Amino acid sequence: MKIIGVIGGSVVDKKTYDIAFRVGQLIAESQATLICGGMTGVMEAACKGAKAKGGITIGILPGSDPADANLWIDYPIATGLGHARNLIIINTAQSLIAISQGYGTLSEIAFALKSGKKVYGIGTWDIKGITTCDSPEIAVSNALINT
Amino acid sequence: MKIIGVIGGSVVDKKTYDIAFRVGQLIAESQATLICGGMTGVMEAACKGAKAKGGITIGILPGSDPADANLWIDYPIATGLGHARNLIIINTAQSLIAISQGYGTLSEIAFALKSGKKVYGIGTWDIKGITTCDSPEIAVSNALINT
Amino acid sequence: MKIIGVIGGSVVDKKTYDIAFRVGQLIAESQATLICGGMTGVMEAACKGAKAKGGITIGILPGSDPADANLWIDYPIATGLGHARNLIIINTAQSLIAISQGYGTLSEIAFALKSGKKVYGIGTWDIKGITTCDSPEIAVSNALINT
Amino acid sequence: MKIIGVIGGSVVDKKTYDIAFRVGQLIAESQATLICGGMTGVMEAACKGAKAKGGITIGILPGSDPADANLWIDYPIATGLGHARNLIIINTAQSLIAISQGYGTLSEIAFALKSGKKVYGIGTWDIKGITTCDSPEIAVSNALINT
Asked: Is residue B109 within 8 Å of B119, Cβ to Cβ?
């Protein structure tokens, strides 16, 4: 099974939300499982997109209550570990798609690159090691090849 | 969705293995999802039982490589956190079934009771707060009611 | 350097508080460093005792703000990991003294015994593997020998 | 008490090692406590510098054995949490000095900036939010003011 991670901010603008939604759709259409932080913003949009196409979604939550997950999470994993949960997403995903530019996203990108995993970025940090992609289609097709 | 946690040792005798296998079967037959530590022993037996009945299994692994999971895990969550991963199982499950008597299992029982979750025990520690059950059938039916 | 861990509940009665205070005094008089969870109850009492004798105290806090520590902590380590911080106390201490009977304390006892560390108990759980002690003096002298 | 965090790679060149050593000296001369990841490279150099000036050093280790710490750590905190230990350094330090350019360091910088803590960089990533400093003297004096 392919598991693709989607990382990005919890508060994002409409354009970014739409990109994340499209990324989620494409992951689901490819029969891959989507893993993310399970909360709002990019995470919610990607899950909503995945569920619109019948995909499966896993949310690695910062809190200790599974009910904190957004409504499009199939499997809410309640870590109770705060930001440390970011590393679980990185370890579990086979490749990552990074959307938006928060510091939390940067920490996940850094952990992913440290772990030797491929990161495909759309509108995110310009860090040595990221493969910048012009569209959700390019990012997801790359992420699938490198899993 | 109901998520039932199965906790128990990674090295167990045949009788305990068979009990865990039966617990896994019953969880799957009840359409509940099984969550466990994803490794050998009780964890493997329960997952094998669940998959024999078409159930879904989540493994919360101590290591950072999803490939460490036993072969009957559908969703291997690689935490890289060692024993601290035990708390994620407790936080995520709605109720717990404890099998066997190791110290790791005791730590999970303690965390579950501290979190106010019900623990149904078969051949495990006799700790104030655990509901001791005589069979897998009783343990699973209780666990389902209390989720 | 010897590092002794003191584990116990955050809400305790006067008798238990006094025992923990005495344990802290004895650890400090032995030139050992005291490590604990850094919060109230047994943790606070032990730290207060240690500081009364000029000892050094380390608090491994559940939250992410060092200011959450009790006032008798020299080095507040802010983990942000909730209950998972308990394992850090166990890994860092050379031996443990357990006081009182909460489930959090039980989880720490279980982790310590799983890690092969000695646990000296005063008025705590009666678990196979714990060495029950009749007084703070006996507990601390044992803990020092086994570090 | 002031606690300054020093973050940087575990394998670094001579020039970087010397910078970290000088940073450690200056922290100790300022009566501040140094916290770091407790291992080799920048961490070792900074601790060695701090101990050369009679300072106090805390190491937040990735492994579960305090004996893994470098020889200049006074208080080895054994987390057993792997890279997740990075967040503990960030939460505990009042401000951070970042030296060198690895991805692990980048993840710590990102977490620090996300937490609203000041990061003073010498020869490290050029990330929005870092204050770049030309010398150990400037970095440490800034870090002390902002604690």
From this structure: yes
Is ipTM strictly over 0.90?
yes
Tell me the three state secondary structure of residue B125: coil
Distance of CA D132 to the CA centre of its chain: 15
Is there a contact between B4 and B93 (Cβ–Cβ < 8 Å)?
Answer: yes
Size of interface A-B (CB pairs under 8 A): 57
pLDDT tens string C88-116: 999 999 999 999 999 999 999 999 999 99
- What is the per-residue burial (b if ≥16 Cβ within 10 Å, else e) of B24-43? bbbbbebebbbbbbbbebbb
Residue D146: band (very low, low, confident or very high) from pLDDT cuts 50, 70, 90:
confident
Residues from A contacting D (CB-CB < 8 Å) are: 81-84, 87, 102-104, 106-107, 109-111, 113-114, 127, 129
Cβ neighbours for D116, distance < 8 A, ≥ 6 positions apart = none
Tens digits of residue pLDDT in A45-65: 999 999 999 999 999 999 999
Query: Is residue B1 over pLDDT 90?
Result: no
Q: Pairing between strand C95-99 and B119-122?
A: unpaired
Decide: A67 and A37 in contact? Cβ < 8 Å. Answer: no
What are chain B's partners, defined as 3 or more CB pairs within 8 angstroms?
Answer: A, C, D
pLDDT tens-digit series, residues D72-92: 999 999 999 999 999 999 999
User: Which chains have at least 3 CB atom pairs separated by less than 8 Å from chain A?
Assistant: B, C, D
What six digits make up the tokens of C130?
């714990």
Percent of chain D with pLDDT over 70: 100
For B65, the 3-state DSSP assignment is coil
d(CA C12, CA C31): 26
What pLDDT digit, counting tens, does each position of A89-118 carry? 999 999 999 999 999 999 999 999 999 999
Strand order in the sheet with C57-61: C75-78, C57-61, C33-36, C3-8, C95-99, C119-122, C131-132
Confidence of residue A1 (pLDDT cuts 50, 70, 90): confident
Q: Provide the 3-class DSSP secondary structure of residue C80.
A: coil
Q: Tell me the two tokens of residue A95.
A: 């490749």
Q: What angle do CA B11, B111, C132 make, to 5 degrees?
A: 80
Would you give the distance in Å from CA C21 to the centre of its chain? 11
Contacts with D62 from chain B: Cβ below 8 Å: none
Closest CA of chain C from D90, distance in Å: 9
| Residues in Cβ contact with B139 at an 8 Å cutoff, skipping those fewer than 6 apart | B23, B97, B120, B121, B122, B133
Average pLDDT over residues B69-87: 97
Contact indicator for B64, B34 with CB cutoff of 8 Å: no
pLDDT of residue D24: 98
Nearest residue to C54 via CA among C34, C70, C78, C77? C34
Q: Distance (Å) from the C-alpha of residue C140 to the closest C-alpha of chain B?
A: 24
Residue B73 CA to residue A137 CA, distance in Å, equals: 30
- In this complex, do D82 and B84 lie within 8 Å of one another by their Cβ atoms? no
Q: What share of chain B is helix, strand, coil (3-state, %, to 5)?
A: 45, 20, 35
Helix, strand, or coil (residue D4) = strand
